[in-house]
# Entry
Amino acid sequence: MLNHLLKILYKILFEINFLDKKDKYFQKYSIYKNKIEILDNIYENLKTKDKVFNKIYENLKIKDKKLNEINNILLEIKKTKSVKSIISTHTTPEKIKTIHKKYLNQKCFILGSAPSINDFDLSKLENEFVFCVNKGYLLKDKGLKNINAYCIADPEAFRDYGIEALQQNSKYFFLNTSVLYDLEDKENLFIYETLMEPKISEGFFQFDLTKPIYDNNTVILHALQIAVYMGFREIYLMGIELNFNPDKPHFYDSSEREKESCQKRSINNAPKMLKGLKKAYFILNERGVKIYNCSKNTENLDFIPFKSL
# Structure
């Protein structure tokens, strides 16, 4: 019960914008990291529970609209009889180094969750290296034979179906540190960190996965940076549209939480995702990394050459 409450509290705090607009790029990242470390210290010292209130208010200056919600969670924590610390997910740089350029000059496929993925005969990918994201394991019901690598970056997504995804036993499972779960050190688990600023759309792309990667509101760009780090030089995109239909945002029947997220986040962030993907395409094209779009009727991705499966 306590761990569950703490995870909710951490999630609330994680979503709050702690930073002033004047904070830029790495300076902003440094400040953000320091504040997360403050939270970690709070959890490590939960036996002195009153300090939880003091440190949150004094160090984080939380916005008024979140205070009542946080207070309620903290009151529930104080009612519990036992106290345990929550362990946040940490990066695995030494393990990550073992996959650097492991697939040099090879090709791979990154599969998204858009409805257009239903148009493909996925059994044709049986002998290919396949990346899936989020609920991609459901593609096995649609003919996909193999998932070689998996990536989840959204804490809510992992909470909803992350354990099921882990059970697919992909050779590589990539997880963002923002996913705050206690996970045993599985051999196939690779944990990376993400910078909130600057964005890929501003001309940034991470070629060293042992360092924090860049974001632009979509897990697809996480998978793309991972694939490039692993050495892939020919990357095919399938089921990636970035023009979210609120009635049918995914190839499967979306949950209510996913539909709400589509309405509130995905649709609004779609232009940012598209801008980030476009910038990534041109950055990689200059370096000789070829990206192709296999999905038809995706006019907003017309900057990426089309290639049929």
